[in-house]
Design a protein that fits this description.
By secondary structure, the protein is an alpha+beta fold.
């Protein structure tokens, strides 16, 4: 759907379907209303705009207190009026929060499992004591002439719960089913309502419902913070007398500010381009699924992707984004792939289902990060020991400090860590009960003189052990210490950034890099 600057229309994106059958989600187009109060409702529809065929999304920037001064602007829109002025201060005089309810998600289903969803849903109803259904999270949507699908499928509670009750249920079911990834999915039911007062330099006061749309000049200032000018900014209240600053900008401009936080400047250009495509893919994968009660699509923190707002962006980062403009990773032609990455996989990446207990993703199965696969099964301790004695994978480049590593814990320290979780007394043995294809542990037993502690989940294992680099380790007792020898830094799923640097140095292009870490996918230009 080509759209020019003059035809800046918004696409409504339907993203919640709660039926047992497979639905096709359509989009439709609605002209932007001149009334900013109506626009507030419209922004909650997960809409996004286009300019020169490039999608523009909304990103949360920062919270500001009452009394913050907004400077160097052309005008702001309040209600159905546009007021021209250079600066103002704001204060929030009333705020009623949005109504959000939550579904308890017991299991994610792969598309191949949808035919047997009724049996699985029935089983979860019996295990949980709750009536269940299939919840479709995401949608089919259109960008220009491309059709994109980011839907995921979950067996969830049919009933909706408020926040406190959902947290109680999460704790209950996570304890009952530690080998599953039990999560809550937010469902937006009604928008927040608020009143924001704008005081101008000449003493005039405007009372604005819910939202301000700010049209800045270059060098736009909010408090002491300087932001890119010539963009649209929204200011919308939240609880506690604060308002949230939100920018509306092109996906490409946002990516230029994401890339420096995800990869260092000295990386080869092709590596930076691979990182740009993975980060762009993640944006489209998450659209409409996070921050469902807010007017922004993504935030600026690692919860979504870290966005760096201050300072000039180096031209090399800009080049990497521009030379991959509109390119994303797709699976089966139209499905937006999940595109996780970690600092270092250590030479072997991991299956996603072994890390997050999620549905199987054929393109996120573990791969050997070297030119030739090895005849080793790293889920077996003997083979992992052999592997850890080698430098295989990622070329063991000097900047990669965690390709292989050793960490030592005193007996006192590790026993304090474990006993803080559960009283087991003096540590006797550490037993890896389940390892993934990369050797990463996702079920482990710590046996003590007074009991045993069993921990599920790769991240939980690392957190328990004082944020250990990776759960791909072997443990041994040595005098008064426990010694952990391992590989990699992070969960190991998807792209290894150190491996991508190595491939870039070998002259491999970004498509080769992405195909290694996300096999069975295609790189497609969607705008």
């Amino acid at each position: 759907m080509a759209q020019s600057e003059k035809e800046s229309e918004k696409v409504i994106w339907v993203y919640k379907v709660r039926k047992y059958i497979f639905f096709l989600c359509f989009f439709f187009v609605s002209t932007l209303s001149a009334d900013i109060s109506q626009e507030f409702d419209f922004l909650h529809s997960a809409s996004f705009s286009f300019k020169n065929n490039v999608p523009y999304i909304r990103v949360h920037v920062k919270s500001y207190e009452n009394g913050t001064k907004i400077e160097n602007i052309k005008s702001f829109e309040c209600g159905n009026s546009e007021i021209a002025l250079k600066s103002f201060t704001f204060s929030v005089s009333s705020f009623t929060p949005a109504v959000v309810k939550y579904k308890i998600a017991f299991q994610e289903l792969a598309q191949s499992e949808l035919r047997s969803h009724a049996e699985k849903a029935k089983l979860w109803s019996m295990k949980s004591g709750m009536e269940t259904e299939i919840f479709v999270h995401g949608a089919i949507f259109s960008i220009n002439k491309s059709t994109i699908d980011n839907r995921e499928y979950f067996i969830t509670s049919k009933e909706l719960f408020d926040k406190d009750e959902s947290e109680k249920l999460l704790n209950k079911f996570r304890e009952m089913f530690p080998e599953h990834n039990i999560v809550s999915i937010p469902v937006h039911e009604s928008n927040a309502s608020s009143l924001i007062n704008v005081k101008t330099d000449d003493g005039k006061t405007y009372k604005c419902p819910n939202l301000l749309l700010i049209h800045p000049k270059a060098g736009f200032m909010a408090g002491n913070d300087d932001y890119p000018g010539e963009k649209n900014y929204f200011l919308t209240p939240v609880a506690g007398g604060k308002a949230e600053l939100v920018i509306e900008d092109s996906v490409e401009s946002i990516l230029q500010r994401i890339l420096p936080g995800e990869m260092f400047l000295s990386a080869p250009l092709e590596t930076l381009k691979a990182q740009a495509v993975a980060a762009r893919t993640d944006i489209f994968m998450q659209l409409g699924k996070r921050h469902v009660s807010e007017i922004w699509h993504i935030c600026s923190e690692v919860h979504c992707q870290k966005v760096i707002w201050n300072g000039k962006i180096d031209s090399k980062f800009v080049q990497a984004v521009k030379e991959t403009e509109g390119e994303v990773i797709l699976f089966n032609g139209t499905h937006v792939a999940r595109s996780p990455y970690c600092s270092s996989a250590g030479g072997r990446t991991e299956d996603i289902r072994n890390v997050w207990f999620t549905a199987e993703k054929p393109y996120l199965s573990g791969v050997w990060d070297g030119d030739k696969p090895l005849d080793l099964d790293l889920s077996k301790e003997a083979d992992l020991r052999t592997f850890l004695q080698s430098d295989y994978g990622e070329d063991n480049i000097k900047m990669n400090k965690r390709h292989r590593w050793e960490v030592r814990f005193s007996e006192e320290k590790i026993e304090n860590l474990l006993n803080a979780r559960k009283k087991i007394g003096k540590l006797v043995s550490i037993n890896a009960l389940s390892r993934g294809v990369s050797g990463r542990i996702y079920k482990i037993e710590f046996a003590g003189t007074e009991g045993k502690l069993i921990v599920y989940g790769e991240l939980n294992v690392r957190k328990l052990l004082d944020n250990l680099y990776s759960s791909a380790f072997l443990a041994r007792r040595e005098k008064n210490e426990w010694v952990f020898t391992g590989m990699g830094w992070g969960h190991g799923v998807g792209m290894s950034q150190m491996g991508a640097v190595s491939l870039g140095r070998k002259g491999k292009d970004f498509r080769f890099i992405l195909k290694r870490y996300y096999p069975k996918t295609e790189i497609s230009k969607i705008y």
